[in-house]
Amino acid sequence: MKPMDSQLSTLNSEPKEYRRIAVCGGIYNNYLALEAALEDIRRREVEAVFCLGDMGAFGPHPDRIFPLLDEGKVLAIQGNYDQSLAIGLDNCHCGYTDPRDNYFAQLSYEYTFRKTSHENKAWLGKLPTHRRVKLGQYRVLMCHGSPRRINEFLWESTSPNCLLEKFCRDFETDILLCTHTGIKWHRALNGCGHIINVGTIGRPENDGQVHVWYTLLTAGDDLQVEFIPVHYDHKTLAQEMEQEDLPLEFIETIRTGWWTTCLEILPAKERARGKY
User: pTM (2 decimals)?
Assistant: First the structure.
């Protein structure tokens, strides 16, 4: 596919203004969930669709993501996975610290690296790492992990207000959008901004439910934040993962909604909500 010129905006571009946008994160090769999410978004009268990166990981057939992003006119930024694929690094630099988490991350990365075309890796390399827009009166900054590091985990239970307020001040934004953790959350700070982790559409949220999530943002007198569940054909995805000899642990997550890998990075409060 040809690179999309609309993807190449940077922080230096004049922010475009919207009233209603959809934002997703972490597609993780889950092209069936992306297809279902875009179909749902088309019915909700949004002005633009954004993705906060990590097109690859966990799932099958990574090249099936890219035509859907193009067709849906999705404006994307880079995640750590995209950055690693684009410049040919030997791992995803996801930020895990546990050996078991890194073992499974490496299996996933090697599969995705092998199955992603050179053309699509080159396209990932041209994506910006941040994006700014206006949403009504609000300044919005989009990033993957955090504004200061692409693979930083901003968990709800361990991100103090003082840090989040500092991000808003230092990076001159009213709304900070991020992903990377795989679990959505929203916090309105005391009169000085909003932090919204938009969740991921690549795998479920470790709550025993098989659906995934994206986020709708609407500007009015107040900011309206809606987390939208996406139901998709997860059984077919699981079958295709089996056919591609992907780890059974990844497939179990898709079939049950419980995480079986990448668990050790979870803070105690988030982990306590899961099964393992």
Answer: 0.93
Handedness of CA 128, 130, 132, 135 (dihedral sign): positive
Nearest to 131 by CA among 19, 217, 20, 23: 23
Checking DSSP bridges between strand 131-135 and strand 138-142, what pairing results, if any? antiparallel
SS (H, E, C) 13-43: CCCEEECEEEEECCCCCCHHHHHHHHHHHHC
pLDDT at 192: 73
Answer whether residue 70 shows pLDDT above 60. yes
pLDDT category of residue 6 using cuts at 50, 70 and 90: very low
> pLDDT tier at 7 (50, 70, 90 boundaries)?
very low
For the segment 7-36, the average pLDDT, to the nearest whole number, is 86
Interatomic CA distance for residues 155 and 163, integer angstroms: 12
Supply the DSSP symbol for 185: E
Burial track 228-238 (b if 16+ CB lie within 10 A, e otherwise): bebebebeebb
Q: What does DSSP say about strands 175-178 and 185-188: parallel, antiparallel, or unpaired?
A: unpaired
Q: What is the DSSP letter of 2?
A: P
Q: What is d(CA 93, CA 106) in angstroms, rounded to the nearest whole number? A: 10
